[in-house]
Fold UspA domain-containing protein.
Amino acid sequence: MPHDFTSVANCALSHALKTAKIVDADVYLLHVVSKEKAIREAEEKLGQIAEEHKGEGVTILPAVRVGNIFEDIGDFAAEHHAQLIFMGTHGAHGWQHVTGSHALKVVTHSSVPFVIVQEKEVKDTGYDDIVVPLDFNKETKQKLVLVANMATYFNSRVHVVIPDETDEFLRNKVLGNIQFAKKFFSERDIELTITLAPSSGFDKEVVKYAVKNDADLIAIMNLQKNSFLGILGANYEQYMITNDAQIPVLMVNPIESAYGQSVLFS
């Protein structure tokens, strides 16, 4: 996980450590610097953080890299065969200004899924309730593999929220995704609820539902690159990852075929 020595990065680290402990994984702690002369100071700071969490039963591997966060976070994760990247996002103050739009740019460059964290600490039990918006986009089903694997590890309840479409064509597409989700989670013995929400302002309805059900994670696709009107897609994703309830967001980039088996989430 990238760490910029801020409180929100510490919060993201607590999420990463909780997950790593549950799935028996190591945590790479990455800091990206723009110049070589900054390497030593960054190494010392990362070393201190690793030492502070020494007794938590997770191996922390500090790493400093010269480059920029928009490319090197995703590249580092791919090179080290990471299965998830935990990253904090905050306002306009801090390391390279990792605001919502910048966090989205980091995510879009990466082939590895992200958990974007604000300042909501992870519970002792991890992610008990995961909210999954499921619309008519065919790519939206890809995230279900990762959601199901996380739900299995954490014994989570999955809450699928779907837009109440009035257009018959869109409604049929949504209904098809509902049937897919029911079968998919049923086969894996994962507790599932399905709720209709107004299609107008669907993103806000999803967050409202997540707050009402005390959700620990919202799982979305990053459809920004695929959106016909890119700015609409960007607004949706940015709204979700910087939601006022500060609920962490699992974000998956769409790929040509769904995510396959992995060492961590198999």
Q: What stands out?
A: The chain has two domains: 7-117, 129-252. The domain at 7-117 is CATH 3.40.50.620 (Rossmann fold).
